Amino acid sequence: MEARLQELKKEALGKIETAHTVKELTDVRVAYLGKKGPITDVLKGMGKLPAEERPRMGALVNEVRGEVTESLDARMVILEEQAINEKLQRETIDISLPGRPAKTGNPHPLTRVVEEIEDLFLSMGYEIAEGPEVEKDYYNFEALNLPKGHPARDMQDSFYITEDILLRTHTSPVQARTMEAKGGEPIKIICPGKVYRRDNDDATHSHQFTQIEGLVVGENIRMSDLKGTLSVFAKKMFGEDREIRLRPSFFPFTEPSVEMDISCFKCGGDGCNVCKKTGWIEILGAGMVHPNVLEMAGYDSKRLTGFAFGMGPERIAMLKYAIEDIRHFYTNDVRFLTQFQRTEL
Amino acid sequence: MLVSTKWLKEYVNTQQLPPAQLGEKITRAGIEVDAVIDRSEDLANLVVGYVTECSKHPEADKLSICQVDVGAGEIDQIICGAPNIAKGQSVIVARPGALLPGGMKIKKAKLRGEESNGMICSLQELGIESKLVPKSYVEGIYVLPEPVEPGTDVLSYLDLDDTVLELGLTPNRADAMSMLGVAYEVGAILEEEVTLPKMDYKESTDRAESMLTLEVDAPEANPLYVAKVVRNIEVKESPVWLQQRLMAAGVRPHNNVVDVTNYVLMEYGQPLHAFDYDSLGTGNITVRQAKEGEKITTLDDTERTLSPHHLVITNGKDPVALAGVMGGANSEVSDKTTTVVIESAYFSADSIRRTSKDHNLRSDASSRYEKGVDPNRVIPAAERAAQLLSELAGGEVLGGSLVFDELDKQERIVKVSPDFINSRLGMKIPLEDMLDILSRLKFNTEAANNQLIIQVPTRRQDIQIEEDVVEEIARLYGYDEIPATLPRTDATLGGLSPYQAKRRIVRHFLEGAGLLQATTYSLSSEQSATQFALEPTETTRLLMPMSEERSTLRQSLLPHLLESLAYNTARRTDSVALYETGAVFMKGQDELLDEQEHLAIVMTGLWLDHGWQGEKKPVDFFVAKGIVEGLAEKLGFELSFERGELDGLHPGRTAFIMLDGTRIGVIGELHPAEQKKRDLKSTIAVELNLATLLTLETDALIYTPVPRYPSISRDVALVLSKRVEAQSIEQVIRKAGAKLLKDVRVFDLYEGEGMEEGKKSLAFSLTYFDPEKTLTDEEVNAAHDKVINALTESGAELR
Question: What whole-number distance in Å separates Cα of residue A260 and Cα of residue A235?
Answer without folding.
Answer: 13
